[in-house]
Amino acid sequence: MRPTVAPFPATRLRRPRKSAAMRGLVRENTLTVNDLIWPIFVREGENVEEPIASMPGVNRLSIDRAVVAAEQAAALGIPAICIFPYTDPSLKTELCEEAWNPDNISNRTIRAIKAAVPEIAVMTDIALDPYNANGHDGIVRDGVIVNDETVAALVKMALAQADAGADILGPSDMMDGRIGAMRAALEKADHTDVAILSYSAKYSSAFYGPFRDAVGASGALKGDKNTYQMDPANSDEAMRLIERDLMEGADMVMVKPGMPYLDICRRVKDEFGVPTYAYQVSGEYAMLQAAAQNGWLDGEKVMLESLLAFKRAGCDGILTYFAPTVAKLLKSA
Ligand SMILES: NCc1[nH]cc(CCC(=O)O)c1CC(=O)O
Question: Catalyses which reaction (predicted)?
């Protein structure tokens, strides 16, 4: 970069910060409603909005309420909604067959939303944990999460979601080879327009705790996910995973969690220049909400600041539980 700072007082870097008008003129990044993907949790029932204790302000919704949420999101201009299922414990098995049931809670929600609000993009989650008796993202044999058998199951899951009308598939399982296998299966099934947003750099993080409560996987999970999710110590490895998933047919890539991993977001954008997303995960949401509820932080301000930081780090969009709140704020601003 060429030097742009003449010696003081020729340069006074406070000049462009003098007023809101000046600050607006020199602002490098902005957060807009187009940057938001809203994750929601769905469950059985009718007219149900069940609070999740560790995620204040977030509810598990029955399908009819999820459709209303999608209508509200579309009215606010939110481009995409992402569906996560709370599965009845009686449907969880070792082989996770419910995951590719065309009529599971997730696939019925996709159909209901696409029928009522076709303009909103529907994203899904592809991983076995909500359907697995042991809470893992993959099939477990003799204590080992088996890769290739899991990929075969994930492909069935992906096809069922595409058949239900999903616009964006979100593989969050971290198995090897799953993007290529899904892409090939989608092509073969004539689902040529279904996008894959790969959770490529997904870390084995303690920030997922509240989410596991939300989908009812916390109690079931034995052990940790360290043999498939990434070591939080690594950064070069994330670049290899991103490149691998792009080469296998991912359209968009994700870094997860968000705020503690902004360095990874920046590297991905700089090295690959592809549509890059971050997930502001449940634990990040819980931290900000808890502090705001105690009056320790200004909730609205930290919400906006945390999301703007993702844009500055190079992200094209953010999955955030704050999506409807922030969309309303941006609309009224
Ligand atoms: N594979 C499931 C999945 N998909 C998204 C999240 C976390 C989202 C959040 O914490 O908000 C998880 C949890 C996990 O990997 O244990």
Answer: 2 5-aminolevulinate = porphobilinogen + 2 H2O + H(+)
Query: What angle, rounded to 10 degrees, do the helices at 236-247 and 262-272 form?
Result: 50
Ligand 1 atom at minimum distance from 172 CA: 1
pLDDT digit string, tens, across residues 155-185:
999 999 999 999 999 999 999 999 999 999 9
Place of tokens 């503690």: 260
191 vs 5, more confident:
191
176 within some domain: yes
- Which of these, 124, 120, 114, lies nearest to 186 by C-alpha position? 124
| Ligand 1 center–CA 320 separation, angstroms | 12
The number of domains in the chain is 1
- Strand pairing class (49-51; 36-43): unpaired
What is the CATH classification number for the domain harbouring 295?
A: 3.20.20.70
146 neighbors 152 (Cβ within 8 angstroms): no
Task: Report DSSP letters for 9-67, one per residue.
Answer: TT--TTGGGSSHHHHHHH------GGGEEEEEEEESSSS-EEE-TTSTT-EEEEHHHHH
Mark whether 256 is an active-site residue: yes
pLDDT in tens, 235-245: 999 999 999 99
Residue 24: inside a domain, yes or no? no
Query: Range of 116's domain?
Result: 30-332
- Residue 212, pLDDT > 90, answer no
Q: For 58-61, which contacts have Cβ atoms below 8 Å and span 24 or more sequence positions?
A: 58/214, 58/285, 58/321, 60/86, 60/214
pTM of the model as a whole: 0.97
Flag whether 126 is in a domain. Answer: yes
**Could you read off the pLDDT of 83-115 as tens digits, one per residue?**
999 999 999 999 999 999 999 999 999 999 999
Q: Is residue 94 part of a domain?
A: yes
